What does this fold into?
Amino acid sequence: MGGIGFTAPALLWGMAAALAVPLIHLLKRPKTVRLTFSTLRFFDESSVTARRSRKLRKLLLLITRMLCIALIALIFSGPYNRSDPLRLLHDPVHPVYVAIDPTPSMTYRDKNGSPAERAHSLLDSLAVLRPHPGSISVYATQSCSFTAVQLSDDGTAPPVELFDAAAFANACRETVHRTPDAVFIFMSDFQGAIASTLDSLLSGPLFEKALFISVSFTPHKPWNVYPTEIRTSTGAVPGIKVRLVNTAPRAVSGKLQVTINTLRMVPRSCTLAPEADTVLDIAVQSLAPAEGGSIRFDCGDPLPFDDTRYFVAEEDIPSSILIIGDPAATWPVAAAITANEPSGHRSVARCTYEQLSIKTLSAADVIIICSGDGARQSRELVGSIVRPEKQTVIDACDSTCCSGNEHWRSTKKPLSLTLADTVSDFWRGFPSLHAADVHIYGYRTGLTGMPLAYLSNGLPFITLQKVSENRLSITLASPADINSADNLCETAFFVPLLDRLIRHAERFRARTRPPWIAGHPEKNPYLGAHTAVPVLNAEGKQLLLLQYQPFFTIDNPGVYRVIPADAAPYPTVTIVDPAESRTVYHAPQTVGLPMHTVLTAEELSAHFSGRQGMPWRIIPWIVVGILLILELLLRERPASIPKQPVA
Amino acid sequence: MTTTTILTPEHIAPIRTLSLRARLIVEGMIAGMHKSPYHGFSAEFSEYRAYRSGESTRMIDWRKYAKSDRPVVRLFEDETNCQAHILIDKSASMGFASGKLMSKFEYARTLAASIAWILIRQRDAVALAAFDEEVVTYLPPRSTNTQLKTIISSLDALVCSAPTRCGRTIDRLARGLKKRGMTIILSDFFDEPHDIINGLRHLRYKRQDVLCIWLLDPQELSFSEKRSWLLRDSETGRTITLDGRTAAEGLGHGLHLHRERLLGACSELKIDFCTIRTDEPFVPALMRVLSSRGRR
It folds into this structure.
């Protein structure tokens, strides 16, 4: 990769023209004439000195002319540093493929406009700089392919859409197969998991020759306020609990507007503490199960797309969580669960094996078996429980519980964790950066079920298995409590992991469906049904029919009604992607990826317009100018010989 | 086609006989001037002056003495108009000729013969001195026709050799001059200007009307810049290698300076100084020289 390359190597032959200079000099070399002259009294020593200096001058002139021609030929041949991947940008006809992140976070609006607007404005300016047809193609999210660029009419950004990373990767692959040295420009704010998606795309062998440029539009000091985690109470005291998240470094005041069905409640003013979550209890007169509504918090935040959160009132089913193990070792587990649900919606109980009873086990919705004495017996006892309601068992035992194909392995070199994916319902939005902090010294092998996370040696760490219709089994290869086999409960990974596990267990148990994400493809629950299942919007208008398509997408958030043919109609909610609300931005990885570069919009424009590296590009021309001036200075002036008398 | 136009050095060079060559030139010149050289030269009464004791009594105008009772001497114009000395440089540098042109010496002796012819026709006494480092040949002044033949044969016998000591030779010749007269110097004057000026000054001191004719070959006026030159001094044998530019500049500046100094001195001494190139036709050159003297 190193060394110097040339954009037009054929022009290097022009350097041969430099050889013409000495040839011309030789051809024009004056012939020596011997002459017996009348007198040499007029030619003294100064004439000899003048002759020598003139000879030296001619030699310098020859060298200057050769250098000048060689340098001009060199400049026009377009030398470049092979190790500089950005050299491809300097070629005005080189194909450039641009993709703009269409996710809602790109609508973040500050005084400079939104990243989406700035990205499209940059694209327009690039298209003006590269008028050659086909030189710039833009990734269309709907067709999942690169198409010729079209200038935006009014400079506004197109509406936000889903960014399908897999489809984008496929489009990139197809393009690279066609044009191995293609230039990809990805304009994004790099919010959420976009950066990690890019990293996984770029770490493959695909981008060995192709150049991938990430243009960052990350907002400066971003903040956002949005409602989340709406919990409804439909019992004797109806009410709504909503968590308002404020990531601004200052207190934010706004008005909370609650709407149930079509009934708007009186707006409520509230002030949120800086960089803190505030849980609000909203009392309502009545709230029946399956009633839909929305909560909107208006505070003029820069990311307004997520200010409204829709909900469907659920029947109150509190979760009962039982932690089996030594209380001295299991308290971090209980604390983590409580930390994730401070509202007390979950009841957490701890007991030892000795305190276990069939009644206790049957009453628990989620059972967490930790390490310690009697863990093996606890596991067997839990396995024998038959309960009509759905129950989840989280098995986090140590070496004492190994049975069947399971074996306990120890390692002196600690292992870390890797998530199986970042886009599934289980892991979406999970702070994966903390997984590397986990050190596992002992683990079980031979776990069965679908792996959710892996050890760094490739063996599964968390597996998920639906044992029966009413039982879900989640198995951890290493204990979750305080133990010597791992440091799981000491890391920042622990609390969000437990939250995901408990949420998954609650989702398994819940009667209401998980919310659909607006713009995301959802799995069709009625795939292959005999009768098409209509989905109606709030106005009762049919949006789509669920029957044969494996996936469907609902673009707008809201409360929708699904009317199955063989069951009672039920409401379901579509919310905006909560991952897009987080004001967490990650720069894409460039270490170890020589063909991946992160640029600012200004730097990219400079590269496109050829202004980048201008001083270095001007220097050869300055040298040529100096050589030409030198050539003029060295060139002989007409001789100032006094006119002799004529006749 | 007139005679003047055909008398170029190239045309006249094949004529080996100098007398014929001189005659051609003079006749051509007279034809060109349309003016007889015999007019205006006659012995006439000039003035009376008092007789000085010791003078020959034959000089006394007795008729005037009878009338005025004072012995007076009648003075006449000299029978010979003047004594002209032709000094010709025969040094090795005068032998230089470029191309098919006559050498400077060839040109000079042709001019000398022509001038001698004219002067003798005018009844002027003509002397010839050929010199290089010193005077090689000297013919005392005479106005007879045989003197012309002697001059021409002497010029014919001269061969270019030896270095120039022009200034010193002129100075020596000036010492021997007793009467006022005219001195014509035909040379390339490639000597120290200081010596030449001293010689000329001495000539003027001897009441000589001096005419300097500076003969130059066209090659001596300009060198081709497109050639490189390996030059050998015809007098000293010294060699030097020069590129055309240096040679042209060196010669140009040197010659210009040399000429300026000579011209300045001649102007100061009231000496006519003419330059003739050897590619110049004889008759116009000679007419130019003589007419320039006529204007004074």
